[in-house]
């Protein structure tokens, strides 16, 4: 439930996953979601196992990580807006797309790294785990319970991405070139907008 709840709010990763599923098929969307789920799992591990040194290191460089994430989102948004679908890109009939291993790895890696640019996620896990009485700042972590928590976070997060990719994949074959162009424009604006908001927030706070 914790992993599902943290993954479910639609942000830039969700929009990216939706767009990739629409254009490239369920395999692309699921690979993107798995990258985000693994990053959530990594941050969940830091919180569950009380790895304070690692958390402190990430928090120390949080601003720079967020700057990189904001710039990446803006660049990705602009690239998406400028991408114009061709006639042969239309998906008018159900078909099974086979993504190459290189493309799947790229989808996975991009969302994994993008999710990692928000180390504040650790604080979310710490707050939730502490609120449920699952972690304590003073006690040594119960490694069996912590392992189960991390596995649960990954499973819940991955479940959300499976539902999202599978749901979008059901009607993706109905998209024509005009619909693909609108998808690119809206996705690019939203993704780039998230990046601009991140940089604007940092500028207002530190400048």
Total helical elements: 9
Count the beta strands. 0
- For the record, give the distance between the C-alpha atoms at the N and C termini, rounded to a whole number: 38 Å
Query: What is the succession of H and E elements?
Result: HHHHHHHHH
Low-confidence segments, ≥5 residues, pLDDT <50? 92-96
User: What oligomeric state do these chains adopt?
Assistant: single chain
Average pLDDT reading: 76
For the biggest sheet, the summary is: none
Residue fraction in strands: under 5%
Q: How many separate domains?
A: 1
The gist of it:
This protein has helices at 2-7, 12-24, 26-48, 52-60, 62-82, 101-116, 121-131, 143-171, 177-206.
Question: Can you lay out the helices and strands and say which pair or pack?
Answer:
Elements lengths: L1 H6 L4 H13 L1 H23 L3 H9 L1 H21 L18 H16 L4 H11 L11 H29 L5 H30 L1
Helix pairs in contact: 2-3, 2-8, 2-9, 3-6, 3-7, 3-8, 5-9
Task: Describe this structure as you would to a colleague.
The chain has helices spanning 2-7, 12-24, 26-48, 52-60, 62-82, 101-116, 121-131, 143-171, 177-206. It has 207 residues and is mostly helical. The protein has one domain (2-65, 92-176). Helix 2 (12-24) packs antiparallel against helix 3 (26-48) and helix 3 runs antiparallel to helix 8 (143-171). The relative contact order is 0.25.
């Amino acid at each position: 439930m914790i992993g599902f709840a943290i993954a479910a709010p639609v942000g830039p990763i969700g929009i990216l996953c939706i767009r990739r599923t629409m254009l490239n098929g369920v395999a692309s969307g699921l690979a993107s979601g798995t990258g985000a789920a693994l990053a959530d799992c990594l941050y969940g591990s830091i919180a569950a196992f009380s790895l304070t040194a690692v958390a402190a290191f990430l928090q120390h460089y949080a601003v720079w990580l967020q700057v990189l994430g904001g710039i990446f989102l803006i660049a990705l948004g602009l690239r998406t807006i400028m991408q114009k679908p061709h006639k042969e890109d239309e998906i008018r009939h159900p078909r099974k797309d086979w993504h190459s291993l290189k493309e799947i790895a790229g989808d996975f890696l991009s969302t994994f790294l993008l999710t990692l640019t928000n180390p504040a996620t650790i604080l979310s896990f710490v707050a939730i785990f502490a609120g449920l009485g699952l972690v304590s700042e003073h006690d040594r972590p119960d490694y069996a319970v912590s392992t189960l928590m991390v596995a649960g976070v990954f499973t819940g997060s991955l479940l959300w991405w499976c539902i999202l990719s599978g749901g979008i994949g059901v009607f993706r074959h109905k998209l024509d070139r005009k619909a693909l162009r609108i998808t690119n424009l809206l996705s690019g604006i939203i993704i780039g907008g998230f990046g601009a908001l991140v940089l604007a927030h940092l500028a207002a706070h530190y400048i």
